[in-house]
Amino acid sequence: MTDPREAQSLAEHGAIPRDLPSPPPLATLSSSTDPVALFLDFDGTLVEIADDPHGVYVPASLPALIADLNARLEGRFAVVTGRSLEALEAMLGPLDVAVAGSHGGEFRQAGSREVTPLAQPLPGAVTKRLSDFAKDHGGLLVEPKPFSIAVHYRRHPEALAALVACADETGAAFGLKLKHGKQVIELAMPGSDKGSAVERFMQGPPFAGAFPLFIGDDVTDEDAFAAVTRLGGAGILVGPMRETHARWRLESVSAVHAWLAADRSSTPNSHKENSPA
């Protein structure tokens, strides 16, 4: 069941409730004109969500899968995550693929170590205020990032109402965007969202002119679902059915891996799916 606050966030994104079919095989999403560009979320999409974001299990095969997808798509591939790039590479090792971290606040092209910020750094006073709140409410898990800060309440759901009030007040004071995720509240600098990151990638080579696909599981992925839809592409929701901008749905993280690994002998160059109704 969708959390009421997640439902409110979805309504703000203009998401509509409807049943979603499974996506066609990646290799068959092709035509002679529009190559596929694939954008993947990390937590809840490539790896299972854990109570502690530092304790997720990363399959040993995941870095190789990422490299394989990047090669198959001729570089039209990116990981777009809420984690910082530093935290992501601590789990996966150095990445040569295109990647956006901190919900798009950090932006890096494939083969480069140069990070382009898409937002201003988060003020230290915000981190202190939410860290102090977390200590006073049972030791909520705080995840500071360069352009945002996340507070996980999975282990202390009783603190949610007070946490939302604190985040609302702090966000208003510092001009931040409040994001509701899966048992997590996040405050982010303006410009730090996954949709902006996808749009930035799609403006230049090798992504420009491609059919964009974004795969993600959380409410924070709705910006990206909306962005790829505006660009003529489609989103793939991971997990239970809910209101969403996505066109297709995969049941679980394991279903994502199976879908990505299928038809490896074929190169998914382009798109031939009928336009949505």
From TrEMBL:
Renumbered residue ranges of the record's region Disordered: 1-28
InterPro entries the UniProt entry points to: HAD-like_sf, HAD-SF_hydro_IIB, HAD_sf, OTSB-like, Trehalose_PPase
EC numbers on record: 3.1.3.12
GO molecular function, one term: trehalose-phosphatase activity
Pathway involvement of the protein, from the record: Glycan biosynthesis; trehalose biosynthesis
GO BP, sorted A to Z: trehalose biosynthetic process
Alphabetical UniProt keywords: Hydrolase, Magnesium, Metal-binding
Catalytic activity entry: alpha,alpha-trehalose 6-phosphate + H2O = alpha,alpha-trehalose + phosphate
Keyword Magnesium: yes
Gene3D superfamilies: HAD superfamily/HAD-like, Trehalose-6-phosphate phosphatase related protein, domain 2
Record's keyword annotation contains rRNA-binding: no
Cofactor dependence: Mg(2+)
Record Pfam families: Trehalose_PPase
Function: Removes the phosphate from trehalose 6-phosphate to produce free trehalose.
NCBIfam families: HAD-SF-IIB, T6PP
Protein name: Trehalose 6-phosphate phosphatase
Organism: Novosphingobium pentaromativorans
Name of the gene encoding the protein in the UniProt record: otsB
